């Protein structure tokens, strides 16, 4: 059995390989160790993730990756290749994991369950966002207005309200959109996927529910994201709708704005 040391980066890490001797049944043992922190890995790709090394670069847009396989998947964005097709509806995807996630729409499977309340979700990201409702964590704050969010993606989407940015452009007519979901819905006008104008034109791409206005869709999506932008100034409870917050605050103020008109008339009549 022979062995050798491979120095990848003398400042940060090195790897030690135990090589298999020809005609021997000795198993190959490979260890990739970070020299700086002493952490070991059984795959070189994991070491690259640890050190932040990204040697695989996309020639189209310059984005870099730690592993060649990730670059290969990324290239499908540029080529338009969607090799994974849903047998239920024919929709295609560029990643197998995206297809598996999509199939749950048909099966109704929700494998991710909240340990606090038992609510289930089709996506792990939605579960993570939901759990923050229980923990009270809101780690992403808008520097413009102070609103807090429990998902970075929701904050990024919110920031476009202030910046006016519309990064999603229709390749057919050049119209710009601030939300990718709105672009996807718009493209169906050109593809003929929805040849008849339907009053329910705003679609939730988490559950396929439709709405007549963008604002209704926005409010609905808080069910999936767990976003609760309205907080009570009395007890720090948070709500997804301003109307729900207003109703809750009456517990603290004692306000009772609704009166029984029959009762009032009855008293007046007896008086």
Automatic annotation (TrEMBL):
Belongs to the krueppel C2H2-type zinc-finger protein family. It is found in: Nucleus. GO terms for cellular component: nucleus. Residues 56-83, 84-111, 112-139, 140-167, 168-195, 202-229, 230-257 form the C2H2-type domain. SUPFAM superfamilies: beta-beta-alpha zinc fingers. Coiled coil: none annotated. May be involved in transcriptional regulation. It comes from the Eukaryota. GO terms for molecular function: DNA-binding transcription factor activity, RNA polymerase II-specific; RNA polymerase II transcription regulatory region sequence-specific DNA binding; zinc ion binding. This is C2H2-type domain-containing protein. Gene3D superfamilies: Classic Zinc Finger. Keywords: DNA-binding, Metal-binding, Nucleus, Repeat, Transcription, Transcription regulation, Zinc, Zinc-finger. PROSITE patterns: ZINC_FINGER_C2H2_1, ZINC_FINGER_C2H2_2. The keyword Translocase does not apply.
């Amino acid at each position: 059995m022979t062995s050798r040391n491979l120095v990848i980066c003398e400042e940060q890490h090195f790897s030690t390989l135990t090589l298999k001797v020809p005609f021997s049944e000795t198993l190959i043992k490979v260890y990739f160790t970070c020299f700086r922190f002493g952490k070991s890995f059984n795959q070189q790709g994991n070491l690259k993730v640890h050190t932040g090394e990204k040697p695989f670069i996309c020639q189209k847009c310059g984005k870099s990756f730690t592993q060649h396989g990730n670059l290969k998947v990324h290239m499908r964005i540029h080529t338009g290749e969607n090799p994974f097709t849903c047998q239920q509806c024919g929709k295609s995807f560029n990643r197998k994991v995206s297809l598996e996630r999509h199939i749950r729409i048909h099966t109704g499977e929700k494998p991710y369950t909240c340990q606090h309340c038992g609510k289930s979700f089709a996506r792990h990201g939605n579960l993570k966002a939901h759990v923050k409702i229980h923990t009270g964590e809101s780690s992403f704050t808008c520097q413009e207005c102070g609103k807090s969010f429990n998902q970075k993606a929701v904050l990024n989407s919110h920031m476009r309200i202030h910046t006016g940015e519309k990064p999603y452009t229709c390749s057919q007519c050049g119209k710009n959109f601030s939300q990718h979901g709105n672009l996807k819905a718009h493209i169906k006008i050109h593809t003929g996927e929805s040849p008849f104008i339907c009053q329910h034109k705003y679609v939730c791409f988490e559950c396929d529910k439709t709405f007549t206005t963008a604002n209704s869709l926005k409010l609905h999506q808080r069910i999936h994201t767990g976003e609760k932008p309205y907080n009570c100034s009395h007890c720090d409870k948070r709500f997804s709708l301003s109307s729900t917050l207003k109703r809750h605050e009456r517990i603290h103020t004692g306000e009772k704005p609704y009166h029984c008109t029959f009762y009032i008339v009855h008293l007046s009549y007896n008086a």
